[in-house]
UniProtKB/TrEMBL annotation:
Entry annotated with the keyword Ribonucleoprotein: no
Gene3D superfamilies registered for this protein in UniProt: 3.20.20.220
Name of the featured protein: Proline dehydrogenase
Keyword Ribosomal protein: no
Family from the record: Belongs to the proline oxidase family.
Record organism: Erinaceus europaeus
CC terms in the record's Gene Ontology section: mitochondrion
Gene name tied to this protein: PRODH2
Reactions catalysed: trans-4-hydroxy-L-proline + a quinone = (3R,5S)-1-pyrroline-3-hydroxy-5-carboxylate + a quinol + H(+); L-proline + a quinone = (S)-1-pyrroline-5-carboxylate + a quinol + H(+)
């Protein structure tokens, strides 16, 4: 990756967590939770008193901007307009001082390391993400060279994730995110999905056969694909295998990102193939986790079946549980194709499904111990409360096979409360150049509109703390 412009003291002052480092001891002293008993954590925003005023102002400004629909809908066009009006350097400086500084760790390894050290000082852990960006029907990025470039970036991310947390054992499990369609064509996934969904799908597409091909490097010739597609599948399996192999060697667990429903059967096939090879009883792990989205109607049943199948096969099982993105896109695709809408009817139904899936997974964790691991990836305070309470009731240790996840730059009042109480908490951290990351952030914002709108409470807590400081000076 390239290098950012030299950071000024002002930008250092604005970086998330800088002003809170000195307050970590005070946070721990205020913890209301011990390993001997559970009580509800307080998400009242008191932690914001420990942030610098500049950090509070930036967070409030950025979160308010991100809740403005036109900015999210036309983000890329507005970025291009700003570059023409202000110039590349000035518009870039504005972005670095605002959106980029709020949600991104940096570009260079040194900058990422600085962000991670700040998080560690606050009891939080990194979940690095390579910001690859491609729409399922995009023709802009094609060819094996693009996927091979992404492979190199993923391998570097494995190394960075591990090296940031040396020596081993001091920071618990090391996790990173993996996007399958960064290594294989969405078009191939759509083709595979169409075959998987046919009655009596061919055994050629079994995870066991693909896992064997990954491990042996033997040439695959699937009858449902043409020669070019078979070659691309072979190359894709090789890339996925190399990432998993390297991650296993470096003791880094891979959390596979969820994507569009119309790709999910193929993605699940590929992830199951990786899990068959790398989540076996002799490997430890789980080294490969899948993501389950509660906004889909069939998630609870798919999750139950996957957990039971892993148990029967003697595999370890890792799950990142999210409410999910892509809802607007999914509804639009279903409408255009005249098919049944795969999503829950509303947010309440999604929350109810999330809670059911959470209860299912916590029960499996309690029964299987470290062979079954879960990330509660949620900004929802009620879900976090439910998870911590059930962990206590089921005897699941705080820093054990269950962890929590939120986005960098968001939901700090929840993340810090969990971290200072002793839970394992990860922040999803994209990193890279401005040119790489801003389109990625805009796309994620478009997919996660509900999360950004749901940050209303966080904005209110930030506003309260700023008003308190202003009144104190009057």
């Amino acid at each position: 990756m390239g290098h950012l412009l030299p950071k000024t003291p002002y930008l250092e002052w604005l970086h998330p967590g800088v002003m809170m480092l000195r307050a970590w001891g005070a946070l721990r002293a205020q913890a209301g939770h011990s390993a001997l008993g559970w009580q509800a954590l307080s998400f009242d925003g008191g932690v914001f008193r420990l942030k610098g005023t500049g950090e509070l102002v930036r967070a409030l400004l950025v979160l308010r901007l991100c809740s403005w629909p036109p900015l999210i809908t036309h983000g890329l066009a507005l970025q291009a307009w700003a570059q023409r009006l202000l110039g590349v350097r000035l518009s870039g400086a504005v972005l670095r001082a605002s959106v980029y500084g709020q949600f991104v760790a940096g570009e260079t390894a040194q900058e990422v390391r600085g962000c991670v050290q700040q998080l560690q000082g606050l009891g939080l852990r990194p979940l690095l993400a390579v910001p690859t960006e491609e729409e399922p029907d995009s023709a802009g990025k094609t060819g094996e060279a693009w996927y091979e470039g992404n492979l190199r970036a993923m391998l570097q991310c494995v190394d960075l994730s591990r090296d940031l947390l040396e020596p081993p054992g001091l920071a618990g499990n090391v996790l990173m995110q993996l996007k399958v369609t960064a290594l294989t064509s969405p078009r191939l996934c759509k083709e595979l999905t169409s075959w998987i969904r046919r009655p009596g799908a061919s055994l050629e597409l079994s995870p066991e056969r693909l896992a064997e091909a990954m491990d042996s490097g033997q040439e695959l010739q699937l009858s449902c694909l043409n020669d070019e597609q078979n070659r691309h599948l072979q190359a894709s399996l090789s890339r996925l295998h190399r990432v998993a192999q390297h991650a296993r060697l470096r003791q880094v667990q891979l959390l596979v990102d969820a994507e569009y429903t119309f790709l999910n059967p193929a993605l699940c096939l590929l992830v199951d193939s990786l899990a068959t090879r790398w989540n076996g009883p002799g490997e430890g792990g789980p080294w490969v986790w899948n993501t389950y989205q509660a906004y889909l109607k069939d998630t609870h049943e798919r999750l139950r079946q996957a957990a039971e199948a892993a148990d029967r096969a003697g595999l370890t099982f890792g799950v990142k549980l999210v409410r999910g993105a892509y809802m607007d896109k999914e509804k639009e695709v279903a409408r255009l194709q005249g098919t049944e809408d795969p999503t829950q009817p509303d947010y309440l139904a999604t929350c109810q499904n999330y809670n059911r899936c959470l209860e299912l997974m916590l029960t499996y964790v309690a029964q299987r111990g470290p062979k079954c691991q879960l990330m509660v990836a949620s900004h929802n305070e009620e879900s976090v409360h439910q998870a911590t309470k059930r962990m206590r009731e089921l005897g699941i240790p705080l820093d054990g096979p269950v962890c929590f996840g939120q986005l960098l730059g968001m939901c700090d009042h929840v993340s810090l409360a969990l971290g200072q109480a002793g839970y394992a908490v990860y922040k999803s951290i994209p990193y890279g150049s401005l040119e790489e990351v801003i389109p990625y952030l805009i796309r994620r914002a478009q997919e996660n509109r509900s999360v950004l709108h749901g940050a209303r409470r966080e904005r209110e807590l930030l506003s309260q703390e700023l008003r308190r400081r202003l009144l104190r000076k009057i």
